[in-house]
Amino acid sequence: MARRYSLKRRLLIRMGAIFIIALLLLGVGIWRYAERAADYSFDRLLTGASLSILERVFVTNEGIEVDMPYSTMSMLSLAPEDRAFYQVLGPDGFPLTGYPDLPLPEHWKPGNEPVFFNARYSGETVRFLLQSKLLTEQGIHGWVTVQIGQTRIARTALTWEVFLNALGLLLLIMSLGLLFVWFGIGRALRPLGLISQDLRNRAPAQLSPLEVPAPKEIAPLVNSLNTFMRRLQGNLNLMQNFIADAAHQIRTPLSTLQVQLDMAEHEQDNAALKRRLSKARELSKRLIRLTNQLLAHALVIHRGDTQTLARVNLTELGRQVLTEAVRDHAHTAVDFGYDTNVQAAWIQGDTISLKEALRNLLDNAVKYGPADNQITLAVHAQNGQLQISVEDRGPGIPTAQHQQVQQRFERLAEDRAGSGLGLAIVRAVADAHQADMTLSNGESGGLKVTLSFPAAEQE
Q1: GO: which molecular function terms (predicted)?
Q2: Whole-structure pTM over 0.70, yes or no?
Q3: Rounded distance, CA 58 to CA 93, Å?
Q4: Domains along the chain?
Q5: Distance of alpha carbon 337 from alpha carbon 344, whole angstroms
């Protein structure tokens, strides 16, 4: 037995996995955003400090002087846990003041645009800014550059603060999303629960169609269940009809047979005893034929509902059935004939059911026709269809009764031998193959039964 799993749980796990992947991707984006936001905030402090230093760079007779403003240190003291470093480079690139060993980026040249970069200094990661100013005074022409740096402790703290706040909000949103998904899945699967409850509350024999509101995604399931129950109801009806028919049709012959045997048991006259046994033998034959035809009728209906049709060659099938009939009736004066205008007549069909239908047509022709009856089985291609027919030279059936004799247990006369199932079996086979069944009067006045099938596609 296959292991059962919860569809709701499986959907929730998959949605949770999608949410986790989204959370990881969004987390990376949030972290980068938090880093940029922290850098932007503290870079403004570095910019303000560097500009305040550049404003206090003067050219005097002695050269370039730097008057470090107090406001510079006050700006950087806004992050008291960080350390700050600075230096001022003259036009020749030599330090004028500050820390002379501060690192510079490779291939850097002074210019109007500020340059930010990260570097290791004094055992820590430091954020540096290079801000330059062009001097053209008293014979000095060149760039004066202020390099100012700050450790990243406060920046990292701000980055984590922004990141965790945003991540917390995102986790809250995703948790609410999963909760809504949970309720949404439960509501979406509610029709399945209604179907289960409907089926659980039904009586064993209640096979009526399901009538529950279902979305279009579940409609195919409901339609399949309804189709299955219709087929099950049909099989149940078939079984009930078979039991009812068998009880009704067999009870009377069995009772009559029992009466004949009881009377024969007490019969003293030999001639009368022979008559009783002869009647009992005839009743036994009729009972055997009736039983066989009841079983055959149930068989063809059952196969019509359960079997998958395959390619069948009607010409070959007709020859096989006719050969069997010739063998079975070799002791009679019946003349069997075969006629066809095609070498192969392929249809989609069930061989067993088709053979049963043809046997019944041939048996009926022998049973109800004259002793020297002429019976012809023909296979023809006509008007885009493939037809197989059985024609005899018997008394035929009045046209007004052609529909009546195709019903179960219908006979032309009550005193006429037969079960009334022969043509009903043929009709059931025709219906199972979506074939047309027609009764007509043959050229010799006998009955002609024709089955017309759509031709199978060429392989």
Answers
A1: phosphorelay sensor kinase activity
A2: no
A3: 17
A4: 7-160 (3.30.450), 212-306 (1.10.287), 308-459 (3.30.565.10)
A5: 18
